[in-house]
């Protein structure tokens, strides 16, 4: 009986069926969200699910709620909602209109559905590129149960963005460039950073065709009309939002210019952001541990074998520095390749060590959940 149980677990780890995979992903999401709720009950003495939703949908969630109810303002406020892209709040608005459920609940359900779909496509992508079901399951567990997984349950764009990004990577790998383009357009309507995916496409294509000259590269590239059209479709979501802002405010780049309101007294740019962080936290030991961790992540990203993943990872390591170091962890969490790179490294270890790492990451996630409930500003 024990031998049959062990062989069943081994079969699941190395080759799960479609049904087993779906059940495993759904179970992880439910367990993770239940743990979040129980922490709310224990730490804040909460009792209702609505109270829980209101406690986790904070910070930027308030801007999405304003967009859902009132749309985008015509004139700037202290921190205008122009900085937040429209697809997620529009989806929440649609669900609230169709079902009558409140905004917090609609946002929670949408985020978790997107999280589920992103897990499916991430699994497919890893199987396409690594052909290793055990690594795929490790990655999914890390994404849902590990550090920063809670972002995919709150009323932030993380889960929706991650869903479209995983689709883009998968369909790019399958050479389904038009589908990739549609997913890319939806991704850039969710978050502006999605527009940089065109660089991932570029380096994927460079490696794929192995052109011997620039002339050959140009000819083979533009002779592939599906690739060209699919790539051109990626920024479409952002361009449509820019057009809306142009009609609304006269400034198509209002989402960029309003970022100054979020910077407080910090000038934009990596070194200015880092200098401010040192002024605020330089006297605390944990901060330097955080900095060392970020540098180690950068080194780790440089070891990725696939050009598209390496370039995409480095871009997403740099982007958050333009705003503030506190948001770095959630940008890296949802770029797919950072945690995938970590999974690549962990697969070199024995299974018992990988299990220990997952347990450690899950415990760290519980700490982050408590910090979020305490409205710790560094997690914004």
TrEMBL record:
The chain crosses the membrane at residues 21-42, 105-124, 136-157, 177-206, 227-246, 285-304, 355-373. Coiled coil: none annotated. The keyword Transferase applies. It comes from the Bacteria. Its main location: endoplasmic reticulum. GO terms for molecular function: alpha-1,6-mannosyltransferase activity; GPI mannosyltransferase activity. It is found in: Endoplasmic reticulum membrane. Pathway: Glycolipid biosynthesis; glycosylphosphatidylinositol-anchor biosynthesis. GO terms for cellular component: mannosyltransferase complex; membrane. GO terms for biological process: GPI anchor biosynthetic process. It is a multi-pass membrane protein. Keywords: Endoplasmic reticulum, Glycosyltransferase, GPI-anchor biosynthesis, Membrane, Transferase, Transmembrane, Transmembrane helix. InterPro entries: PIG-V/Gpi18. This is Dolichyl-phosphate-mannose-protein mannosyltransferase. It comes from Butyrivibrio fibrisolvens DSM 3071.
